[in-house]
Write a structure and sequence with these properties.
Two copies of one chain form a homodimer. Chain A contains nine helices and eight strands. With 257 residues, chain A is of the alpha/beta class. In chain A, the strands form two sheets. Chain A has a five-stranded parallel sheet with strand order 1-2-3-5-6. In chain A, strands 4-8-7 form a three-stranded antiparallel sheet, with no helix packed on it. In chain A, 39% of the residues are buried.
Chain lengths: 257, 257
């Protein structure tokens, strides 16, 4: 039986090291991505000694350079249009900036990727590949409840808004009756980081337990506007590949030079 | 001698029609862009009757569709990383969304364009060309004072911030001692649209007259981080072309397909 952990344990150094122990014991783990800043060099070394490739997510070229100094193998450059906590720099500006800053370390492009045209654009901007999040959330295999999945399919790009109401830090997610209430002119300002989370955690949990989809603001990037129907991931992947191929073919045969 | 006009006259219908009169009297005018919403159809018709091509700037596919209904010939899709007043959707998400919404009307891609790689990315995302603003501001021909031009050259991408302190609406421009003061935790919230402009107009004018560059927050997109030196526009254009050509060549000869 698993020992009970205090809340937030997974974000402590002790908690991270426990997860690391599990990762290095399992030979299926081929890649680990740090999404919470530069991993300490001893963590990178331990993963490398087991043959695990290590990546880190960066929202600025300064962060990416720090992560390279920690010894990571791959940078995921994530623009501000992505879901969740991000930096302020958009993918169009960030991707080539990070590519230039860390070359020859390979960069995966994240934030706003939802079609093969985006994959081709990422190649044009110097990335070696892409990293997608939001487009899986409307899929048949998604972890979301059917009610919330429907909201993902209905949402427009501008419905993935950045606000501080859930964690105290800017977080991009679906607009909801909950965010509308916080956006009202007479609403209080959100509290700082930890305090805001404490203030709202119980309410958010109740929305989830009641599957009150209209009040739930699941993390989402702006590319949510491109999700028009529920599809299996196999089909989403196939369409990305075909669209990317057609885009590269269009660029090859165009008059542009 | 020109008749004295009340402030804001250029933004009234009467003021716009006066400008339109000047445009249609001058055969050099080949293109007019509306950056303040859909132009009324009679304005588009008058310009068309003189052979002038009409464009409109859009920050969402809904706006772009309205502008097409007004009869405009070209849409400039401007992402939220651009300087000045913008929508909330980033270029990566917005450009292909607008291309799909208004096809076969041609789309120029704006917001975050500062290299030939960006031009190639715009082609990949379905645009017919690009529209640049910020990259001219550090040029030898720029309208900026030498002190302010230096700040453009020194600025990083994350220094082009969106704030409401100058007009009451979100406006992207260079971070300054002025925006830092408004960002302080004990600063008042900005007033609504017209009131905030009235509140700060005199102070902003004094900064400008004193060439107090540290306090001035000239409009700027996030691509400002790519301006590393003062160059003549001829040289900036030449580099855009060479870089775009090399990028398309790299995509043509890559193993990706």
């Amino acid at each position: 039986m698993l020992r009970e952990k205090p809340p937030g344990h997974g974000h402590t150094e002790e908690g991270v090291l426990e997860v690391l122990d599990v990762v290095v014991r399992h030979p299926q783990a081929k890649f680990v991505l740090s999404a919470m800043g530069a991993p300490p060099p001893y963590v990178v070394d331990r993963l490398h000694s087991k043959g695990v490739v290590v990546g880190a997510m960066a929202g600025s070229s300064e962060h990416a350079q720090k992560q390279i100094q920690s010894g990571v193998d791959i940078i995921v450059a994530q623009g501000s249009e992505a879901g969740g906590h991000t930096g302020t720099i958009s993918s169009m500006v960030l991707w080539p900036e990070v590519v230039d800053a860390v070359s020859p370390v390979p960069v995966l492009a994240a934030g706003g990727v939802g079609s093969g045209r985006h994959v081709a654009a990422a190649f044009a901007l110097g990335a070696e590949g892409v990293w997608c999040g939001t487009i899986w959330l409307g899929s048949s295999e998604s972890e979301l409840s059917p009610a919330l999945r429907k909201r993902f399919i209905a949402a427009r790009s501008q419905d993935a808004i950045q606000r501080k109401y859930d964690t105290g830090k800017p977080l991009r997610g679906l607009r909801s009756k909950w965010t509308d209430a916080w956006d009202a002119p007479d609403a209080p300002r959100p509290l700082p980081l930890a305090a805001q989370k404490l203030l709202v955690a119980a309410a958010l949990k109740r929305f989830e337990l009641a599957d009150a989809a209209d009040y739930m603001g699941y993390m989402s990037g702006q590319i949510v506007g491109r999700i028009k129907e529920e599809l299996p991931i196999r089909e989403i992947m196939a369409r990305l590949k075909v669209d990317c191929h057609q885009t590269l073919e269009r660029l090859r045969t165009s008059g542009w030079q």
